[in-house]
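Quick start: load a record and inspect it. Here is 2-phosphoxylose phosphatase 1:
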Amino acid sequence: MNKLKHLFMCLLAIGTVHHNLPCFVSVHLIPVSTPKNGMSSKSRKRIMPDPVTEPPVTDPVYEALLYCNIPSVAERSMEGHAPHHFKLVSVHVFIRHGDRYPLYVIPKTKRPEIDCTLVANRKPYHPKLEAFVSHMSKGSGASFESPLNSLPLYPNHPLCEMGELTQTGVVQHLQNGQLLRDIYLKKHKLLPNDWSADQLYLETTGKSRTLQSGLALLYGFLPDFDWKKIYFRHQPSALFCSGSCYCPVRNQYLEKEQRRQYLLRLKNSQLEKTYGEMAKIVDVPTKQLRAANPIDSMLCHFCHNVSFPCTRNGCVDMEHFKVIKTHQIEDERERREKKLYLGYSLLGAHPILNQTIGRMQRATEGRKEELFALYSAHDVTLSPVLSALGLSEARFPRFAARLIFELWQDREKPSEHSVRILYNGVDVTFHTSFCQDHHKRSPKPMCPLENLVRFVKRDMFVALGGSGTNYYDACHREGF
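Running the structure step on this input writes:
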């Protein structure tokens, strides 16, 4: 265990400096995939590669460190970058909740001891943490859509509850909010000082970790905001599909994707051996251990530098962890090749993308409502959106990942509006399927809004094949 701790601390030192590197590769169970190892640099798209720090081959421990997203002092970001004659019109932010306690525990082992109270002088630290707790304590009478009004506004348990946001998760989003404040409010004046409630659009799922993450980002963005101006809408679906959630073909894609994932796992003898070894250590059947999803708990141990569990039969160790992570990375490679997840993503992401372009189009007409939209969501929300946009090399959404759509107006041609897409601070606009060739034809560092509108209104359905030209028809296509 001492060796494990020493290795972790060495990696942690590296990760603290480099965990925000803007290059793309997946790392988890559901979403986008990595390029195949061995592909030439010419045939493989890379987004701002950093050969000094990016491992020459996919390293499961390095990938896990990126996933943890341990807060650092500073982060490189490209949000808000535009020529001086462009005016920022609106911003649409999609986040994954911050670092959380596991949703599952490894059977017959002691839960990892993580403190979910917020302590200002404990690492990770943020200068606004104490003020955040104080401000949240004043919001108990705030107006939230039910059932959000029954949720705690910040984590507060000495031993974290299952799925609860940690102090790390709060700090991650306080940092996100402060970064966006510096760019969008201080630099671009997106909102006036006397901003009104209708200039914000706030939506979250019914989990405390998403509500609290949204509030932490909002506090970093608008410190000491007026509670009377804040209203979070509740979204029952992790896909944020609102009234458009019934989609049989989407579910068929997902079933086929899950079957593909299952068959790949059966082929991996090393993975099965590892699960068998771990099951013996904790004295449960292999099937029960696999069903308990041990990687979720192991990631919590890893991200918080807590030793993996031991029993009288031995210890779960880093080698077990690396085998499971390596399989997940291989799963991502195959997922991209099979395209089943892409089909699921195109239908799964359509409702939320359709809402977003509707909001953008209203902004182009001069409407001043909903200039800043925030969706506080999950990995299974962001992953389909990334995949649907064609960002096949995007890493799986880390804790506190952010995906941002910026809408800009050309002051020299006021009728022209453009969009930029940014993922964790990296401009990925020209890696999207709807704008990947535009920069070759135009010197503008953005994509015409009409490209995104055409993609959502038409091209997403074309990519699915069949004759459907709208969401309903694509969801109810016969003979899939």
